[in-house]
């Protein structure tokens, strides 16, 4: 079990043979098979845990579907999931947020991605043997870090939360939630290491945008379809921000309901 939502390559290398740790590669199967992957890693492609038509909010896949997905991958309720991709962790982070939403507590993101891993550690094209397990999920967890449109409207009205828009500048300028502050998720990424920037750098960035570094403040994250916000969620939670939640519907849900937006001249 990890004590943070972010683990470095050395930790993964030391624990990838532990029976309770499952390293998950969320890239496309052809990348996993032909380019290679971390030794012992299993493949759960990004599209397999997204579903616009499920009964759950946003693109969550549904409790039954997600339970089957993890069980077929040999992952049990008490196991640790360590996810990675080759895009600075943004697709992998979405798997972790999904797992947390359905009550799977032991999750972590590889700090860096496949390209960063290759610089110092071995890779393989051999797939591990998977022993499926039974994993029943009955619904969203009571602790799911998710808020709905009504909660966002209330937060906008009473100013009790910091709204963070994790999209790029052009998207933000075209239209964003009233009062939202923009921090592109990529701003938390170090271009050289391909991992997360230092805590001091992130705190400086937050301060520069007028955002408090109080670890107990409520922060609501959104983007368009709840992918990019997932990386920001993992980073902030790994730094000790305890009340970070996501607007799962994000701008897709907000605009579908004709919610009010602001533009930047």
Which structural traits does this protein have?
265 residues, Oxidized Rhodanese, domain 1, 2 domains, 5-stranded parallel beta sheet, 14% strand, thiosulfate-cyanide sulfurtransferase activity, Thiosulphate_STrfase_CS, Sulfurtransferase
Word description of this protein:
With 265 residues, this protein is an alpha/beta fold. The chain has two domains: 6-118, Rhodanese-like domain (Oxidized Rhodanese, domain 1, 3-Layer(aba) Sandwich); 146-256, Oxidized Rhodanese, domain 1 (3-Layer(aba) Sandwich). It contains ten helices and ten strands. The strands form two sheets. A five-stranded parallel sheet has the order 1-5-4-2-3. The protein has a five-stranded parallel sheet with strand order 6-10-9-7-8. Helix 4 (90-101) crosses helix 9.
End-to-end CA span: 48 Å
How much of the polypeptide forms β-strand, as a percent range? 5-15%
Oligomer: single chain
Count of β-strands: 10
Write the layout of secondary structure elements.
Layout (H helix, E strand, L loop, with lengths): L5 E2 L1 H7 L5 E5 L3 H7 L6 E2 L19 H10 L7 E5 L5 H12 L5 E4 L3 H5 L27 E2 L1 H10 L3 E4 L3 H6 L6 E2 L16 H10 L9 E5 L5 H11 L4 E5 L2 H7 L9
Parallel strand pairs: 1-5, 2-3, 2-4, 4-5, 6-10, 7-8, 7-9, 9-10
Brief sketch in words of this structure:
With 265 residues, the chain is of the alpha/beta class.
